[in-house]
Amino acid sequence: MFDLIIIGAGPAGLAAAIYAARAELKFIVLEKEIMSGGQIINTYEVDNYPGLYHMGGFDLAMKFREHADALGASFVTGEVERIEAIPAGKKVICKDGTEYETKTVILSGGAKHRKLEVPGEDALAGSGVSYCATCDGAFFRGKEVAVIGGGDVAVEDALFLARLCKKVYVVHRRDTFRAAKTLVTRLAEAENVELVYDSVVKEIQGKFKVESLVLENKKTAEERTIALDGVFIAVGMLPETSAYKGLVELDAAGYIVADETGITSDPAVFAAGDIRTKELRQVVTAASDGANAVQSVERYLAEVN
Ligand code: NAP
């Protein structure tokens, strides 16, 4: 019987592991991927984590992991299927049948890429359609690509791709970006970037690989077909909470309802990082969530023990 199982080893889960180790809790970190770090392992640069200017996302993830390892945290690979109540707390059941018993759980599994749900997207995934510019951008060196979306990820991806590609179209469904102003200014200054406002993707075309993108201007209903080699989709994330329906309260978008204490509708279950309802999903806020959630776990354990 563990005091705590941390599910998900992104910045929130890794920060929670560091705090749990220092609190001398009996715990493990369960992560479905072989690699710790969550979304940031695919982020080219994390430029706003205090004290680590120009830090590579992968390198930052490794630093978090090394820190947790140095404090003796144990990591186990496993994908959670469901969590059941038992008299002493919770039973965590993994898809491979492995089961763990614990007094408390921190859910820190983050979020995954949202799809556009347009014709051609699935058929051409991996053949010119990508959800990760830093992973796949190098394949499009000297070519023409489009980035879809208007958030931080879309703009960061477009800036990254503009360094490699001949031309980058940024297609956004509105006429103002959601992304940070400094990023948008840099994007507007990039010579090989064309901003396509008020437009949505109707179809991604291509026989064996991406050949063109069909757009519709929402204001004029005009259609435009752009010949290109790659489409990078960056239209936000979906929280990884399907295993937790019925366990804790979720909001309409599927995020776990919790404030910065991490306390959820179930007193033995806590949420940290991108998986919970919050204003600002950043590495720094995820790490802070991990710390707060462990403090809430300690308070809960002190009450029930
Ligand atoms: P996001 O901020 O939610 O932006 C998603 C973008 O995609 C929005 O511009 C949205 O349009 C658009 N969109 C959503 N669904 C669409 C659809 N079906 N068709 C077309 N466009 C669609 O998501 P994100 O950029 O992935 O960022 C996720 C979180 O991570 C954010 O909180 C962000 O600030 C954070 N982040 C932080 C850093 C950093 O710390 N440096 C880096 C990257 C991301 P609308 O604007 O019209 O809604």
What does this structure look like?
This protein has 305 residues and is α/β, with parallel strands linked by helices. The protein folds into two domains: 2-112 and 237-304, FAD/NAD(P)-binding domain (3-Layer(bba) Sandwich); 129-233, FAD/NAD(P)-binding domain (3-Layer(bba) Sandwich). The protein is 24% helix and 27% strand. The protein has helices at 11-22, 57-70, 133-136, 152-162, 181-189, 283-304; strands spanning 2-7, 27-31, 75-77, 80-86, 89-94, 99-107, 111-113, 129-130, 144-148, 167-171, 193-196, 199-205, 212-217, 223-227, 230-233, 237-239, 269-271. Helix 2 links the parallel strand 2 and strand 3. Helix 1 (11-22) crosses helix 6. The site of NADP nicotinamide-adenine-dinucleotide phosphate (NAP) has 23 residues, from helix 4.
Helix and strand arrangement:
Elements: E1 2-7, H1 11-22, E2 27-31, H2 57-70, E3 75-77, E4 80-86, E5 89-94, E6 99-107, E7 111-113, E8 129-130, H3 133-136, E9 144-148, H4 152-162, E10 167-171, H5 181-189, E11 193-196, E12 199-205, E13 212-217, E14 223-227, E15 230-233, E16 237-239, E17 269-271, H6 283-304
Parallel strand pairs: 1-2, 1-6, 2-3, 6-17, 8-15, 9-10, 9-15, 10-11
Antiparallel strand pairs: 4-5, 5-6, 7-16, 12-13, 13-14
The structure holds NADP nicotinamide-adenine-dinucleotide phosphate.
